[in-house]
Design goal:
Shape: flat
Largest sheet: none
Number of helices: 3
Oligomer: single chain
Helix content: 55-70%
Number of domains: 1
Length: about 55
Amino acid sequence: MILDTNILIRLEREQRKRLNGPASQFMAKQESGRFCITPTIMGEFGSGQSMAERSV
């Protein structure tokens, strides 16, 4: 399964708050356990992390 930026961000937020939210529940139901991200998604996620660390 290819993960997109939306699910990665939601998972990160849920884990930070120690919540078992919709994204975490969705991932738990996936039986294959094989997850991938594309280079584009990796860049988007990394860029978002970088921007979040900056004070505006």
